[in-house]
Specification:
The protein is 55% helix and 12% strand. The protein contains nine helices and ten strands. The chain has a four-stranded antiparallel sheet with strand order 6-7-3-10. A four-stranded antiparallel sheet has the order 5-4-8-9. The protein has a two-stranded antiparallel sheet with strand order 1-2. It is an alpha+beta fold.
Length: 347
């Protein structure tokens, strides 16, 4: 077998420090080297696959952690503003006077912050202060004319829904006598899911529709339904009227015009503070869970992969013949005399 020396562009001195390359394919050692080369791609593929998996895992967790931290910052800022408003209201009610316009300025400040909820939380905090990451925040709504009582009564009818205009696909729901509440909810949910609309049963037995807050404006303005003239008299595709679920906090309704209004507003501010505190606890728990998943999962997978690589190198390097030479020379690629001297010179 002939061994030829080849120069390396990665810093290995070509004078006696090159990488060995097999020239004679007929020797037995070549079979071992070919086997090693055939195993190497599989090992590299496995390592690359692991790294890709960790990268995807990291990306998802980083997104969840970032969302939680961003939302916590927003909730803390909102709570701080409400605490300041609460103090101003209490002071004004106690003395029947206060700094002119200060209460109104505090209300405007919080109103602006509340309007920024979606963007400030990365779209993960809905109007009910429910934290939804990694899913986007949802907007619940009802459709006028679609009550559980009206759907359980009357003859069979097929209702066809459209979202986004006449060119969109119709989603049909078959309503027939004798259906239970859960069956009605299930049929609506299956039919409307492709249009980005979910359906569930409300606390009082009503139909609750939901869509992402980002899609709400389009659904609100374009949702249409067509029946056979039973529940919708025209029998033609017509726009339905939707009612959004009211937000948990409504600062636009806070009034500061007189003493009674100030008292009512103070009560609403106290309630809003309690809701914000509950939301902060929920988001803090989500953040702790996401961080715990990082601590439990990622380091373990990385350590296992590094241990495997170390064991493979030790096994190959301890074997006589070409496999040992291949393992050692591959590990030494890129290590030049200058690097070694520099390392030895470190204190």
């Amino acid at each position: 077998m002939q061994i030829a020396q080849t120069s390396s562009s990665s810093g290995v001195n070509a004078k006696g420090a090159g990488t060995a390359r097999v020239v004679d394919d007929a020797s037995p050692a070549v079979s071992g080297s070919a086997s090693a080369r055939s195993e190497a791609p599989a090992a590299r593929s496995s390592t690359a696959s692991l790294k890709r998996g960790l990268s995807n895992w990291d990306h998802q967790l980083q997104g969840e952690i970032s969302n939680a931290q961003q939302t916590l910052d927003y909730l803390e800022r909102s709570s701080s503003q409400l605490q300041a408003l609460k103090s101003e209201l209490a002071a004004k009610l106690a003395a029947r006077q206060g700094r002119e316009g200060q209460v109104e300025a505090r209300v405007r400040q919080f109103s602006n912050t509340w309007r920024q909820r979606a963007s400030a939380s990365g779209g993960t905090l809905d109007s009910q202060l429910s934290y939804t990451s990694p899913r986007p925040a949802q907007q619940n709504f009802s459709i006028r004319g679609l009550t559980m009582a009206s759907l359980q009564e009357g003859p069979q009818e097929v209702l066809a829904f459209s979202v986004g205009g006449a060119n969109q696909a119709l989603r049909s729901v078959n309503i027939e006598p004798g259906l239970s509440e859960s069956e009605i909810v299930s049929r609506f949910d299956r039919a409307l899911m492709p249009s980005g609309i979910g359906v569930k049963l409300g606390e009082n037995g009503e139909l609750v529709f939901s869509t992402s807050e980002a899609s709400w404006a389009n659904v609100r303005d374009s949702l249409s339904v067509r029946g056979s003239g039973i529940r919708y008299p025209t029998g033609q595709m017509s726009r339905v009227r939707t009612d959004a679920e009211p937000a948990a906090i409504a600062p636009e309704e806070w009034n500061t015009g007189d003493v009674e209004a100030l008292r009512a507003t103070l009560q609403q501010v106290v309630q809003a503070l309690a809701q914000l505190q509950a939301a902060r606890s929920s988001v803090s728990l989500a953040l702790a869970q996401a961080t715990g998943r990082v601590a439990r999962a990622q380091p373990v997978q990385v350590s296992v992969s590094m241990d495997t690589l170390a064991e493979n190198f030790t096994e190959k390097a301890s074997q006589p013949g070409y496999e040992s030479l291949l393992a050692i020379s591959s590990a030494l690629v890129g290590i030049s005399r200058e690097r070694v001297v520099a390392l030895l010179g470190l204190d």
